[in-house]
Amino acid sequence: MTVYRALFRLLAKMRKRLNIVIIGANDGRINDPSYDLIMRHRDRTDVLLVEPNTTLIPFLRENYATHPSHSIANCAIGPGGTVDIFVVKESYWQRFQPDYAKGWPEYRAATGITSVVKAHVEGALLQAGLDPREAMEAINVPVKSLSGLCDESSWPTPVDILQIDAEGYDDSIILSSNLERIRPKVILFESQNLTESRKEALAAHLKTNRYKLYELGGNGLALERGYSPVDLSLRFAAALLVS
User: Fold this and answer.
1) What is the DSSP string of 159-195?
2) Which of 4, 126, 222, 231 has a CB 3.0–4.6 Å from the CB of 187, allowing a cystine?
3) In this predicted model, what pLDDT tens digit does every residue of 97-113 receive, in sequence order?
4) Total-model pTM
5) Apex CA 56: angle with CA 113 and CA 4, to 5°?
């Protein structure tokens, strides 16, 4: 996340305010690459936090309580309608504590694998020695398009930073978002849970919409191919940082 954080800081220096959308916000703080940067610039950031798991909304509110310009949307992002998200039952949170979650609150690791992709949650539970038939449940949640949500909440566009962590559903979110309308300068998403064919389809979509894509370990970073000083500076900085 070093490159992403460096670009965040660069963008913050170049813009009077940053318009940020975070999809799959979880509790907004733990293991989030933007949280400390957003709070450092709390008087110059507008943050839309999207989280489909209702259980996490109180934690999200608490962690952003001191941020003066944030909004929380309890929904999923996609083409519309409703969708089932697969979650770890609260009674199993204590039993799902992988090594990477040492020191985290009990809820965080278990809620962190929430996904529209059933197989993703099943695989994580099996790896932890838990029976998905017992430990997992489906919750039906509303789905809104990103452009529709921005309209509904009077959220400003274009977006400066779009950050996505949707546990295997990241490509579907980007593909269903009207990039021509939302036009984020920077898109960060998790690519490690996508198949190669889905990565290729997403890369082609981003290229068609004039984005330069960088692979950063298990994440994808897409930068707008515009010609403004901001766009050129971001791409130049990214090229230096990933070389």
Assistant:
1) -SEEEE--SS-HHHHHHHS-HHHH--SEEEEE-TTS-
2) 222
3) 999 999 999 999 999 99
4) 0.95
5) 60
